[in-house]
Write a structure and sequence with these properties.
EC number: 4.1.1.11
Cofactor: pyruvate
Subunit structure: Heterooctamer of four alpha and four beta subunits.
CATH architecture: Beta Barrel
Shape: globular
Oligomer: single chain
Number of domains: 1
GO cellular component, one term: cytosol
Pfam family, one: Asp_decarbox
Largest sheet: 9 strands, mixed
């Protein structure tokens, strides 16, 4: 048996560029890709906190240390500069892999900087 689970998440990443006339994809600072475990060309889901748009694209490597989050191509209609995104990658895991499974979460601050990382999402309280 297999399960599709959240592999990695960049929580509230701030869009720095929205480039309509680009081939497509989402460029993410290479350091953040490495920290999150998201691979270049991996399918990602983007959830726009500011306007509710949800869309699928793939990750490309942005310049290391640039803090870039560039939504490109048709996706640039769904997110603009300054918008806050939740960027997620999902993967298939076997029952054996699930025994020690933890997603990798990068939390971004209001200034677009990496705030902290975690391997768990807090329990939501009532």
């Amino acid at each position: 048996m297999h399960a599709i689970m959240l592999k990695a998440k960049l929580h509230r990443a701030i869009v720095t560029h929205a480039v309509l006339d680009y081939e497509g994809s989402c460029a993410i600072d290479g350091e953040w890709l490495d920290l999150s475990g998201i691979r270049e060309y991996e399918q990602i889901q983007l959830y726009n906190v500011d306007n509710g748009e949800r869309f699928t694209t793939y990750a490309i490597r942005g310049e290391e240390g640039s803090k870039i989050i560039s939504v490109n191509g048709a996706a640039a209609h769904k997110a603009g500069v300054g918008h806050r995104l939740i960027i997620c990658a999902y993967a298939h895991y076997s029952e054996a892999e699930l025994a020690n499974f933890q997603p990798r979460v990068l939390y971004m601050g209001a200034d677009g900087e990496l705030s902290h990382t975690s391997n768990a999402i807090p329990v939501q309280v009532a």
